[in-house]
Amino acid sequence: MSAGRLLGVTVLPEWVQAEGVNAVLDRLQAAGVTGVATSPYVMEPVADGEGSREPPADGGAGEVRLLDRPLWGRRALWVRTAPSFAPDRARYQGLAYQPPEPDALTAREGGVVRDFLEAAKARGMTTHLQVQAVIPPGYRVQFGGARPADQPLGPDGQSVPGRVDGNASLASEDILAYGEALLGDLAAQYPMVDAIRIDWPEIPPYDFGALFFDFSPHAQKVARALGFDMERMRRDTLRLKAGIAGLDTRAVEAMDADGLLAMLQGYPGVRDLLALRRALVVRLLERYRAALPAEVGLMPQAFPPPFNRLSGFDFPAAGRITPHMGVKLYTMHWPMILRNWGEAILAMAPQLDSACVARALVRLLGTGDAAPDAVSGFSYPGPDEPHPASDAAMAQKIEAARREAGGASIAAFAHAYGPLVDVTRRVRVAWEASDGCVWINRYGYLSDEKIAALAEVTA
Question: What are the residue ranges of helices labelled H in 31-140?
């Protein structure tokens, strides 16, 4: 698996189907791209309203998104997927989760994933496969999901429906067993890949309610085995929520990152909850690493600091398991997250001033740009709007992850969604902050003009 300077692009299979293996690779290599990632499925368009929207709606907030590269003639469409391979059923025998059956779409188009990876490898490029860490069947987030019994739960015993990520509980034995089988299967099916990337190997902090996960029976079992007092954890987490509801504007205005940490440290059970989340991430990474052959890398991709403090992704511990990690600068998500958190806080504490909450969130999460006049001012950027993330904020997040990871290699994951000038700005920041190790998500947002700009950024 390559380390050091690398410019990679995630090319989901539908683009290879639509444009052709060599056309895609020729276009990318001409711009200096040295690595490609894809996923083990194939796609076809369906009638509007069926299947899932492409590009993804991101829980409704991202419905403004349009593709830069028309896919089968459209910049937004509805699609369905099928696996690109026939799974080795013996690996999944007796498991609660099973891979989907190959179908006519698999038979007709499935070989394109192998062809693409083999052609990229023949050109000397780094090759990755990307799957979801805990969303079976794992091929793509929009086409999967866990059983109700495997959902993560808050301290009130309730899940949070409608989340962007749809992650299952990281503690579920059935989820982990399926993930181990899937990774081993993919490594055998696609022996040309250098690494398998796992997305969201953490508790994604998109939704405020997810910050209080996980009190599912699966997590309780692991917590007790690790010696945590689950009742204290539940009691203190509920006390923390009550404390948030009782905040006044002056206290929020004065709060900085150290103040937030001090607030959390005041609840021993909350400290335990954060420690449990870190332990669940480490447990998942250890098992997934062991499921792969030694020659195939495991590359988790995670939220940057300080989001990872809440998601449970522990960079120092992860660096002892795998030498390569990705840190996501998906900056169109940042205002979506801040708005969700802000609205949830105001619903709990209506006495707070909305502008004060907006300023505090920008300050605490380090997103960099000036806060809007109210929480309602946070909005998902449209296709032609720059992302509200400063250069300094993005660079600091990558630099913080690199410090925490010790000797592990950190790749910055930039996103191609947005206008040309802003995408170029964000890729340049990622390239410089990571010392030239960047993966760009996704090819469908890379117009020819953006691809040409990549060569200038990385020259």
Answer: 104-109, 111-122
**Interatomic CA distance for residues 69 and 444, integer angstroms:** 5
CA-CA distance, 296 to 128, in Å (whole number)?
Answer: 10
Q: Which two three-digit tokens encode residue 309?
A: 């403090």
Residue 227 burial (CB count, 10 A):
7
Helix (H, G, I), strand (E, B) or coil at 209: helix
Return the structure tokens found at 382. 């449209």
**HSE, side-chain direction, 13 A CA sphere, residue 39:** 26
How buried is residue 289: exposed, middle or buried, by Cβ count under 10 Å (0-12/13-18/19+)? middle
List the one residue out of 94, 100, 289, 230 whose CA is nearest residue 174: 94
pLDDT, one tens digit per residue, over 352-393 is 999 999 999 999 999 998 899 999 999 999 999 999 999 999
The whole-angstrom separation of Cα 35 and Cα 432 is 18
Q: Which of 64, 58, 53, 8 is nearest to 334 (CA)?
A: 58
pLDDT, tens digit (0-9, with 9 covering 90-100), for 72-113: 999 999 999 999 999 999 999 999 999 999 999 999 999 999
Structure tokens at 157: 């015993």
| Cβ partners under 8 Å of residue 318, min gap 6 | 281, 282, 285, 300, 302, 325, 405, 408
203 vs 278: CA distance, rounded Å: 10
Domains of the chain, start order: 6-458 (3.20.20.80)
Cα distance between residue 407 and residue 393, in whole Å: 22
Q: Vertex 194, ends 318 and 425: CA angle to 5°?
A: 70
Q: Evaluate whether 350 touches 430 at the Cβ level (below 8 Å).
A: no
Longest dimension (CA), the chain: 63
User: How crowded is residue 416: how many other Cβ atoms within 10 Å of its Cβ?
Assistant: 22
Dist. CA 324–CA 406, nearest whole Å:
11
Q: What one-letter code names the amino acid at 438?
A: V
What is the pTM (predicted TM-score) of this model? 0.94
**C-alpha to C-alpha distance for 37 and 120, rounded to whole angstroms:** 10
Secondary structure letter of residue 353 according to DSSP: -
